[in-house]
Amino acid sequence: MQVKPLLGQHHVSAITANAKENYRFYTKVLGLRLVKKSINQDDTSVYHLFYADERGNPGTDLTFFEIPHAGTTYHGTNSISLTSLRVESDEAISYWKKRFEEFAVEHDEIATKYGRKTIAFRDFEGQRLELVSDETNHGVLGGKPWDKSPVPVEYGIIGLGPVKLTVAQPEITAKILTDVMGYREKDSYQSNLNNHPPIRVFETGEGGTGGEIYLEERADLQSERPGRGSVHHVAFRVESEEELKKWVDYLKQLRLPNSGFVERYYFRSLYFREPNGILFELATDGPGFEGDESFEHLGENLSLPPYFENQRAEIEAKLKPLDTKE
Known about the structure:
326 residues; 33% strand; 8-stranded mixed sheet; alpha+beta; 16 strands
């Protein structure tokens, strides 16, 4: 490869139809910190909300585009079908089971997956999520939960865990992961569905929960029809802008259609679709979320990248007010 291996997950971006309820669930129930209330830079009429650890360290962000008229998601292939979130210990998984019961969150029983304690759950729109214990994990370090969260720090979410891709033709996605993106195919584990192929495990960088991708083959399903509660894209970590520009050149040499370099202000990006149609993003670790707000006040006000400031009045007029200071 002419580029350095990717460092692991950067963020996952999903779709919600209700920013207010989304904010309540991810901050008051899951205890994540809203580190940035911004806009979808490709459609400034809708919010882009960033939830993460205490300061939005790379690898800890779960983000949402608000699309108020988003329809129902019909689950299927060529999709990001599960987002997992890391916690420090098996004890934390037990804590979360009780918390889900207390807040009437739809959830499964505690299970062991790939040697780790997990608990799968859904948000109010059916977003497919799972908590995974880092008790026996080695690899990419997690983040640091916000000490003002309603969830005790020792049980707090510390970042993104493995992300599952569900496809009809796994070999073409596997080839992109290994031959283009530098992932290593590490292992597999048995699907909990009868008579289905094992789910393949790929890892990058230092590996572990923060550097794994799961690849599931489902030839029995049609393509997913996304809506509220679905995932829009997954982003992977690149250490610097300089390295990202090498990726731009690298994909060009491979003749892989891509967005080219994209300025997102909080990080720099590059987008492309793997052959099954799932949208991948490569994103830099910096600059981060404190360029336009102090650490103490992250997420409290509507933040616009400088190149949108001259449109602030027009943008604010289109957005439904969302109080994030409470």
